[in-house]
Specification:
The chain has 1003 residues and is mostly beta strands. Helices cover 7% and strands 46% of the residues.
């Protein structure tokens, strides 16, 4: 974290001066006291900590390992201090001293990272949340975004499935768009990075997560910018919030430190799917037959001697579901070296991470490396780089709602059907592949190569005035490789293969002029002026091959029929921006920013967008009239601003396009592809925020509250046009969306002693989304389960509302909305929503001597889930015996007088064919997200081994979930590739329950 680096750098300079000035006198004494000073939280040695004999000017400073030697008489008191830590008094008793210092939270909060620099905490008028990576240790997540769940109010995070390396849902203060992206902007060490999946595979609605290319172990700090005053400096990319990630760097004059950390874990599904057994399934099928007027003499399950499949009691149950789940292993290794001399600092690290999926054969593997270096050329010029490389591999499967899905093939196939034929070959089903055939023969690979690099030069022109120029690249190469062999249906008759290579390259050049100056005692001025030029290019190469001589030959060159195609696109963005802030007497602050962006995606008349913001803050507790109030801090904040959005639409959305390569009787030609709209422009989001910060009980209790109002207009929609134009749609600026919400953060230091501390943090948020204007309703997902319409909100379920099951007939009764006596599409209505009423996290950290214990809870309340497993598997016989039943089908109506919500079994009518509210459930949950128990070995036991710090820990994730949802996991979504769909469960891999052991050692 930049502020920590600054504190430690200043501390080290002070230490060198004190050492030169005081060292000779200290060592002149005969009695020598030795000791070591460490950070109470991390156990890491504190370099340059001040050790002084109370009442004298005698003292020294700690070295690179935190140790000190000082001549002192027995019984004298030592004052131990370090910048950013609270002062501690220790009696010298002639023994070696082991001293731990607690962070001075008030001092550490003086600086906060914001866009293009830092700001004094006192002057910040924006909603900015900082996440300490120390709190994230022990969570086996492949990407940094997943680690943030439950850590920041107003930030909703969920994994679309439990597949390793899979897509992650992230929303900061709600959805602002329909067609354009709703994902936040991620900035890593000043580099705008891609977070859109480059995989083109159809994986049953699931997608991959490009942020899994980043190694969480390299992260020093994470800041989340939420309101417009914080994000307007990013202009056209700030509407959905900004996540600033700062990676680790070395420390000047710190020597070299080696750190190694590793963990190993095992994971299982908390529970697996259950179906009826073969005997129950046979009875249900027979009952359906009779209910539909069939003769008892022609029951499907009757004695074999009479031509049937045998009596229900004679059926054998073949359980497939346990075959696809496994105990999965996770392993992680990270080795780094960091340090620096008088004019440089460095961080060099490498990591390896491998995670198996709990559903076969999924797996994710990553190799990563990082090199951060800063060099002070002279007193005014600094140059440096932040560079990371990674190579990731994914073993993938269609684990979700496709006919070739591994889970579907085990879940849906009737339990009375055998797994193998009599000759030992895989038994095939009319719809689904054999689940073991899929597990043994799936060959779906994904490979990602990633380079994120930034080089910079910074020159101090005058006192307080610096100029910085930087050049950055984000290169992401992704390759999908698929071979379908003849053991699975999609590979028939002679095998087929495909390969898609995608390259996304983003080049960025920035200039930044920064002026920071304190004018007298009462005035402080901060001004930045900058320019950005960015170009992004996208290229794909697609190859397919069919008809292979055998499954032993899997390269496309071995096929007899081959096709290929290419595609390329690019866009550019040029920007100018500025921010200015003024603080008077450290209690009145005003700041504002403006950014102008020009994008190649829009026509010349609307190419430029201007995004201003203005904020102010007032520290009320500094006023004379507030001195008698029982608060250490009372701060009021308010701001307003505009941000934009252009992400998620194609690079040429405003242009009239032509397509070449059309085949006219074997001849090449061209044809229209897209209508032009030269008036197309940005989506614009206006947001205002008011906030209150309180601290009391000597800063042991802190409260942060925010109310925000976001309004987005000029939505980028793909609007249908009359077919007589020769086109189906055109991009236009139509529609408006609002988001209003409240956020609350409470942090409490419950106990703080030398050998025991306990802190608690709670965050909770509520966001209300409303589609203010929309020219026509937009339906999403199969059978139009999701509907967006004016006056409604995103994630709304549009279905027929089942009122009850008639106790006399056993038929479902639906709400006849238009009262015409018929149930038609006009009777569909919005009955539920997948968005929660509120969500948040509760974190507790307890430290006792060398032990630490952390527990994080995450919760959502008021969200609904559409359980498509029930829709397809409580089907009343309509699937004609091709799909098995869930146990819920056993609660069906069977005779007059039965009271239940499950209709009678029948293949006819609307009991089971209509998208019904019966399959929508309350998805509220409270989850114990993680628990970690650690032990830091005392330094006196490590000294002779030259080990600076050693910590071992045990942790668990997803250990307990409280929910009424009947499915496996309330936190999954089958349509992870569709940003407008949430809360749909259809044979999705659940979040794994994980146990692991880890080690962190520093030399």
């Amino acid at each position: 974290m930049q502020k920590q680096l600054t504190h430690k750098f200043v501390r080290l300079l002070l230490a060198l001066g004190l050492f030169l000035g005081l060292g000779a006198e200290a060592f002149a004494q005969d009695t020598l006291t030795q000791g070591v000073v460490k950070d109470a939280k991390t156990g890491e040695p504190l370099i340059g900590a001040r050790v002084q004999v109370k009442g004298t000017d005698k003292g020294t400073v700690t070295g690179v390992d935190g140790s000190f030697n000082l001549a002192v008489a027995k019984g004298q008191t030592l004052l131990i201090s370090s910048l950013g830590y609270t002062l501690k008094e220790v009696k010298a008793d002639g023994q070696a001293l082991n001293v731990t210092l607690l962070e001075d939270t008030k001092a550490l909060d003086e600086v906060v990272v914001v866009g293009y620099g830092t700001q004094s905490q006192k002057a910040v008028s924006s909603a900015v949340t900082s996440v300490n990576p120390q709190e994230l240790k022990g969570i086996p997540a492949p990407s940094p975004d997943q680690l943030l769940q439950g850590k920041a109010s107003g930030v909703q995070i969920a994994a679309a499935s439990g597949t390793p390396g899979g897509g992650i849902f992230v929303r900061i203060r709600g959805n602002t768009s329909i067609n354009a992206s709703n994902e936040p902007l991620y900035v890593v060490d000043g580099v705008f990075i891609n977070n859109q999946s480059l995989s083109g595979l159809s994986l049953g609605g699931q997608t991959t997560n490009p942020l899994a290319d980043l190694n969480p172990a390299d992260i020093e700090s994470i800041e989340i910018l939420k309101d417009a005053n914080a994000t307007a400096i990013y202009g056209a990319r700030g509407a959905n919030g900004v996540v600033l990630i700062t990676t680790k760097r070395g420390k000047t004059n710190a020597g070299t430190r080696i750190n190694f950390q590793t963990y190993f874990g095992v994971a299982k599904a908390p529970k697996i799917y259950e179906t009826v057994n073969a005997q129950q399934e046979a009875e249900l099928i027979n009952e359906t037959h009779l209910n539909d007027g069939g003769s008892p003499a022609t029951l499907p399950f009757r004695p074999k001697s009479e031509g049937g499949f045998g009596l229900p009691t004679e059926q054998t149950t073949y359980s497939r579901i346990p075959d696809v789940f496994r105990t999965a292993k996770t392993q992680s290794y990270d080795l780094s070296a960091s340090g620096g001399g008088e004019s440089n600092r460095f961080f060099l690290g490498g990591g390896y991470f491998k995670q198996e999926g709990i559903v076969k054969p999924a797996a994710f593997e990553r190799f990563s490396g990082r090199f951060n270096y800063d060099h002070l050329v002279n007193e005014r010029l600094t140059i440096g780089t932040s560079t990371s490389i990674s190579y990731s591999k994914r073993n993938q499967s269609r684990n979700d709602d496709s006919a070739q899905g591994v889970i579907n093939s085990a879940l849906y196939v009737p339990t009375y059907l055998p797994v193998f034929n009599q000759d030992g070959s895989y038994a095939r089903h009319s719809i689904f592949d054999n689940h073991l055939a899929l597990i043994d023969n799936l060959n779906i690979k994904g490979e990602s190569s990633r380079l994120i690099s930034n080089v910079y030069g910074e020159y101090e022109l005058l006192d307080g005035l610096t100029f910085k120029s930087s050049w950055s690249i984000d290169y992401n190469g992704y390759s999908d490789k698929v071979y379908n062999n003849t053991q699975i249906s999609v590979g028939l008759p002679a095998g087929n293969a495909s390969r898609v290579d995608t390259r996304l390259t983003s080049l960025l050049n920035e200039q930044l002029l920064t002026y920071n100056k304190r004018l007298g005692d009462d005035h402080f001025l901060n001004v930045i002026l900058g320019n950005t030029v960015q170009q992004t290019s996208y290229n794909t190469l697609s190859l397919t091959g069919r008809n292979f001589p055998s499954d032993d030959f899997q390269e496309i060159a071995s096929s007899s029929l081959q096709t290929a195609s290419t595609n390329s696109s690019q866009n550019g963005l040029i920007s100018f921006f500025s921010r200015a802030g003024y603080t008077y007497k450290d209690k009145y602050s005003i700041d504002g920013s403006v950014r102008a962006d020009a994008s190649s995606r829009f026509g010349a008349s609307n190419r430029w967008g201007v995004f201003p913001s203005l904020g102010a803050s007032w520290i009320v507790s500094e006023e004379a009239f507030a001195q008698d109030l029982p608060f250490d801090l009372i701060k009021l904040r308010a701001n307003i601003g505009l941000t934009g959005n252009q992400n998620g639409i194609n690079d040429f959305a405003s242009l009239g396009l032509w397509r070449a390569g059309r085949n006219y009787d074997g001849q090449p030609g061209i044809s229209h592809q897209q209508l032009a709209n030269p008036d197309l422009k940005w989506e614009t989001t206006r947001q205002w925020n008011i906030g209150l910060d309180l601290a009391l009980l000597q800063n042991r209790l802190k409260v942060e509250a925010n109310y925000y109002n976001k309004y987005t207009k000029d939505l980028l929609l793909e609007v249908p046009v009359p077919e007589k134009t020769g086109f189906s749609s055109v991009f236009e600026n139509l529609g408006e969306i609002s988001n209003k919400g409240v956020e609350l953060n409470i942090t409490s230091t419950n106990i703080e002693r030398d050998d025991f501390s306990w802190t608690t943090s709670l965050n909770i948020a509520r966001n209300v989304n409303k589609i203010e204007k929309l020219p026509i309703p937009i339906n999403q997902h199969s059978r139009d389960w999701i509907r967006m319409e004016e006056g409604g909100s995103v994630y709304a379920f549009w279905v027929y509302k089942q009122l009850y099951v008639d106790p006399q007939t056993g038929d479902a009764v639906y709400d006849d909305v238009n009262k015409d006596g018929k149930i038609t599409v006009a009777d569909r209505q919005i009955v539920a929503n997948a968005a929660p009423d509120f969500f948040g996290g509760l974190n507790n950290t307890i430290r006792y001597k060398a032990f630490d214990l952390g527990a994080l809870f995450y919760f959502e309340y008021g969200n609904d889930i559409l359980n498509l497993n029930r829709f397809f598997m409580e089907h009343g016989g309509t699937r004609n015996g091709s799909i098995t039943f869930l146990p819920g089908q056993l609660d069906r109506w069977q005779q007059p007088g039965d009271v239940t919500d499950v209709p009678r079994l029948t293949k006819t009518g609307t009991n089971y064919t209509l998208p019904s509210s019966r399959f929508i459930e309350d998805g509220s949950f409270l989850r114990l997200r993680s628990v970690t128990l650690g032990y830091t070995v005392p330094s006196e036991a490590l000294g002779k081994y030259k080990i600076g710090n050693l910590r071992v820990y045990l942790s668990g994730t997803n250990l307990w979930t409280l929910t009424n949802y009947s499915g496996l996991d309330p936190e999954v979504n089958v349509a992870g590739n569709n940003q407008n769909v949430r809360g749909i469960d259809h044979a999705v891999v659940p979040q794994p329950r994980t146990w692991q052991a880890g080690l962190n050692v520093t030399f």
